[in-house]
Design a protein that fits this description.
Strand content: 25-35%
Distance between the termini: 45 Å
Order of helices and strands: EHEHEHEEHEEHE
Radius of gyration: 18 Å
CATH architecture: 2-Layer Sandwich
Shape: globular
Structural class: alpha+beta
CATH class: Alpha Beta
Length: 263
């Protein structure tokens, strides 16, 4: 089988900072309760993965300041990514809103944390390095040793198709060739609900925002220069700007690894 009958249609991308002094407690609450009870047990959500940015990786982020992360580009120590099955986004989202509210009412929230960027995204497309790649649907379960998230804000008047054409035809083929970057998936924001179940900051200019997730065969430091070059090349086209670029490592599930390295 070369194709995946299971298709990703949307994603939850939730980037959070625990409050200082609560790093271990937050990590354990999220991976032992909320990761499952707030997400994975729900209908039509079929994969999830948590990622962490220790301080050594936060120091690689750009640009500063960032419209994607506040109050600085260093905000956001953890990100969780979840795949929702195509054509079933609304079914899962309705369940998730009610489930999270129930969890909070029953004392299973965690107030000592700050949401930096939490938003749902529609899946657009993936560019792969290899002819027989790890499909995007399996990327969260493949145990890639690194991920990079890049947020792009298109310039006013630039259409999505124009940016996609440059990415897919002109830049990504040579960026990924002979690299440790296995794939690049691209996502478009879904407008935020008027009554979210938690305190989530509003995201501005979502009509011009694109989010990319790059899955890596190595830790991000080994290939970070390619992403720095990408940011400069994109700016030179006049199509848009990188407004947030961050390297990530997968969390070591069941341990407190990295909780003492966030700041």
């Amino acid at each position: 089988m070369t194709d995946c009958p299971v298709k990703v249609g949307s994603m939850l991308f939730t980037m959070v900072d625990p409050h200082r002094g609560y790093e271990v407690a937050y990590n354990r609450w999220y991976e032992r309760d909320h990761f499952y009870a707030g997400c994975l047990v729900g209908p039509w959500l079929f994969a999830g993965r948590r990622w962490v940015a220790p301080r050594i990786l936060k120091d690689l982020r750009f640009p500063e300041p960032s419209s994607f992360a506040a109050p600085s580009v260093a905000a956001g120590s953890y990100v969780a990514t979840y795949w929702i099955h195509a054509d079933h986004h609304d079914e899962h989202h309705e369940w998730a809103i009610n489930q999270v509210r129930w969890l909070y009412r029953n004392g299973r929230g965690f107030p000592q944390r700050t949401h930096v960027h939490t938003l749902l995204y529609t899946y657009d497309w993936t560019h792969y390095r290899d002819s027989d790649p790890v499909p995007v649907e399996l990327s969260l379960d493949h145990h890639f040793p690194g991920m990079v998230s890049i947020a792009i804000e298109r310039e006013p008047g630039v259409k999505q198709d124009d940016l996609d054409r440059w990415l897919r035809e002109s830049y990504l083929p040579h960026m990924l060739a002979d690299s440790r970057i296995a794939s690049c998936s691209t996502w478009s924001p879904i407008p935020q609900a008027n009554t979210p179940p938690m305190d989530i900051p509003r995201v501005e200019r979502t009509d011009r925002l694109d989010l990319q997730l790059y899955f890596l065969d190595s830790e991000p430091q080994q290939t970070w220069s390619r992403f720095q070059k990408f940011g400069k090349a994109l700016a030179a086209t006049g199509l848009g700007q990188v407004v947030f670029a961050s390297p990530w490592l997968p969390t070591v599930v069941g341990t407190d690894t990295y909780t003492d390295q966030l700041w």
